[in-house]
Amino acid sequence: MNFDAITIRDIARELNLSVSTVSKALRDSYEISEKTKKLVLEYARENNYRPNPMAQSLKKGHSKSIGIVVSSIDNQFFSQVINGIESQAYSQGYNVIITQSHESYDLEVQNVNHLTQWAIDGLLISLSTETNNVEHLKKLQDQGLHIVFFDRISNVIDTHKVIVDNFKGAYDATRHLLDSGYRHIAHITSSATTSVTNERLAGYQQALSESGLAMDENYIKYCQQGALNLNEIEQAVDELLALAIKPDAIFTAWDRITTSTLSTLHKLDVKIPEEIALIGFTNTLLADILNPSLSSVHQPAFEIGRKATEMLLSLINSKRPVTEFETIILPTELLIRNSSVKPVL
């Protein structure tokens, strides 16, 4: 059974009034008699009439809605980002429409096109791991759509961006492993095409270089779907364990990759950290109670979402064209727990 919301035209037809009269009565216009206002308001209340906010806002030239594209909302990082987006958007009277790319370029394009059909005022997007071409976004920006990137960004499009200090977060994690005595440190990351992957890889490499260690390509494993495919993680771990010199530590670069690597090592009965230490980017709320507790690089996900939304709304509400843009880089936090602490012999 479909729900058909009652419209102003329905009310006008039932009460034998003009659409204009009903509209004015609902707005409490002085042009309409009290008797007619009462008749219209009672009928509207009894039949559960609700104004169409989309139609109303479009008359004013804006929808009071913003679109969001993330890879997956069941990722703790992105769910926390969305909380930040919603807190800022709702406080300013904006609604949000959330879509998921599931790391697919085609689905990202489809989602963006769908969102624009809803006449959104602006778009917040974290690119999929498959996205190397952002022409679909450039075209929309050229047509006047306000876009702000967060987390995974593109340098092709000139706009506001909100990221974390990926280089330093990776450097700090790798430096911690090195300072703890680990020397064969592997790195499991996502698609080599994303900004996040390259920045974190650079931080990992810098820490090794400062310790006089060359980066071994055999220790670098790329997971093209960013851990949405668990088989990729399992294969990466299997290949690392099959090396002549197995890693004594693993640094993982993405949220889901970190927790999936921990799970995979447990399945293989690899003792953590006795056989292999583990540290990685993750915002999981369970890090403290996992076995062992999981060392992690924590990102200020809520603040990323809040700040990105603040910047998008500033573009939407600006009275003049904005030509100068800013990239906000927020700090990460290294949280040392049992998974990366070298056992005392």
From TrEMBL:
Coiled coil spans: none
The HTH lacI-type domain, residue ranges: 6-60
Superkingdom as given in the UniProt entry: Bacteria
Amino-acid biosynthesis in keyword set: no
InterPro entries according to UniProt: HTH_LacI (IPR000843), LacI/GalR-like_sensor (IPR046335), Lambda_DNA-bd_dom_sf (IPR010982), Peripla_BP_I (IPR028082)
Entry-linked CDD domains: HTH_LacI, PBP1_LacI_sugar_binding-like
Listed SUPFAM superfamilies: lambda repressor-like DNA-binding domains (SSF47413), Periplasmic binding protein-like I (SSF53822)
Keywords from the UniProt entry: DNA-binding, Transcription, Transcription regulation
Official protein name in the record: LacI family transcriptional regulator
